[in-house]
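Blinded run. Sample ID left blank on purpose so nobody reads anything into the name before looking at the predicted structure. Input follows.
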Amino acid sequence: MSQRLLARAGLALLILPILVLLTIYFVELGKVRECLFDDGHWDYIAGVCRDTPQPFVPWLERAPWLVNGGLLLSVLGLGMTMVGLYVKKR
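Blinded prediction complete.
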């Protein structure tokens, strides 16, 4: 794989997982805010608005493969970008 292609693929792997995670996070945040404005309580496990108080469940507990996998892909992309940008002195 050429250095230029490796750097481009690395940049894609560095940026895209973060954008996907942020998109999913902000979509859920919008639903939570809408529920709270309607005087409801968000059920994080079921992903619905309820009338009774619900416990907070962190995103890492609900979707560990999504969070850890996305961050792992970003680190892999960083490594690929660094290798792709490395130029040997002649």
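Unblinding after everyone has recorded impressions. The radius of gyration is 19 Å.
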